[in-house]
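Worked example (supplementary).
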Amino acid sequence: MKIVITGAAGFLGRKLSLALLGRQTPLPGFDQPLTELVGADLVPPPDLGDRRFRPAACDIGDAQAVRKLVADADLVFHLAAIVSADAEADFDRGMRVNLDGTRHLLEALRHGGRRPRLVFASSVAVYGGDLPEIITDTTHLTPQTSYGSQKAAGELLVNDYSRKGFLDGRSLRLPTIVVRAGRPNLAASTFASSIIREPLAGEEAVCPVTPDTAMYLLSPRRVIEAFQHAAGLPAETFGEWRSLVLPGLTVRVGEMVETLRRVAGEAVAARVRFVPDARIQAIVDSWPARFAPERGLSMGFAADASFEEIVRAHIEDELGGRIA
Amino acid sequence: MKIVITGAAGFLGRKLSLALLGRQTPLPGFDQPLTELVGADLVPPPDLGDRRFRPAACDIGDAQAVRKLVADADLVFHLAAIVSADAEADFDRGMRVNLDGTRHLLEALRHGGRRPRLVFASSVAVYGGDLPEIITDTTHLTPQTSYGSQKAAGELLVNDYSRKGFLDGRSLRLPTIVVRAGRPNLAASTFASSIIREPLAGEEAVCPVTPDTAMYLLSPRRVIEAFQHAAGLPAETFGEWRSLVLPGLTVRVGEMVETLRRVAGEAVAARVRFVPDARIQAIVDSWPARFAPERGLSMGFAADASFEEIVRAHIEDELGGRIA
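After joint prediction of all chains, the assembly is encoded as:
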């Protein structure tokens, strides 16, 4: 089978590529083994040393290029996006990639004639504004960012294209993914990875929010499992609606640092400095942190068992088990 | 002030044009009198005998044409749409008009440099699937038609363009409008007007659903009032979300015919024949009929007082007070 990943040069795209190439058995729900994996991004991802992997340069905002990219694909993971802060700063770029890009992809798949599966990476940023204490599967979407609005519109289209039988889509609303590898980026949530990643690597990290700030988190390992699990579920499982919130873990920032102390010791945890930043505090406080993701749980998606599991997974996967 | 109406050749577009031209005072919330009313549609509407009215041919799916159309507009009523059954039958046409058309309009207004007001005619078709008994202002949108999906996506964009300060939009979710003048169309709801309109005009009408079928209705008079009221409300009234359900009346079809009997007599009511149609029954049963539109009520929107008021208004407005 042929799989295409958009946004394949990103942190999750690369991990998903490696996971798919590393599978010993076909994806659940598919009977063919992986024969071709196209990893597409604006700048193509580096080669992964597997003859089945083909890096591809593709601007998702270019309808023609997208059509060529996904020809004959049996399954597409659509991860390409302009992230939150970026889409807010450059509205046109966000619309072009997050909305038009998704639309180009849907159209290309519709006209490919194969009714392929599509896994769309949405986000809990579709929630916003005046929300209930606990977000349920029936909480309405009133996003307060362009990114969230574009993702919510994308979900509507994925659902409608699926309902019409043009393709077989499923949209996963991702929690904040922690611990991301690499360097801090411009996302307001970047500290949530930094306060674990940097201390473990021997560096100081600044935490701009108070210890009692709660966040809704999922590890890279679990989200990569979720992408594959979502691809394999029968269409009937989704009923009349193709979106769901991935189960995650609600953790206070103070607990995150405590866990780091427990796992890596006082010296490591002491590398986190709390330096309040009212602007970031306000943004993070506006994000929903408590969810009752019954639908995702009933479909077999799983959150991390504990924040400790998340920290240990990061140490294993990114640091080869070593703490600086 | 300059006002533009898209879909001006339609039943509601024409009524709204006449209402705006007939006002003795400026719209509430505006201090300037109407100096130019552009009525745009694919085929331009007929002249209305008022020098302020300018019929215009405009394909809303053509970005350039839309930009020209709304230049210098202070207020736009966006009524142009491919309706439900049509958008379901011709997916591309629905996307082009209902989604791209709305987008072209938003972009044109954004770049017009005036931050104009926009009233967007959405629909209760944004609701669908597994719904609660009573729809509230926080019920989630899971549309089960392309029309509903496109309207819901349009609402997300209207909200985001407003949040960004590109324009000042408000989206009204319209109930089924009854009694529409003219002839039956291809909408599954067309009978709801026919069973009143045809008997009053001396013709037979077929009702394809059972008397206990409930519908959520609003009269042409009230919706035209609602469009004008929505235009005048201060932006702050809307808070973080620009959409609302218009208050309507929940009426069983049997009550509708009973009301016709009371208002126009047995001979007229006897012109309605109940001929069950399982396909139409299923479609109508899938529409939500019970709402608690607190938000709309608190903003001063009003439903009709009774179905009798709706019937009498039709007789006055469309039949010059005469019953055949």
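Two points are worth noting when inspecting this output. Residues 91-110 of chain B form the longest helix (20 residues). Residues 190-216+249-292+300-319 of chain B form a domain with the UDP-galactose 4-epimerase; domain 1 fold (CATH 3.90.25.10).
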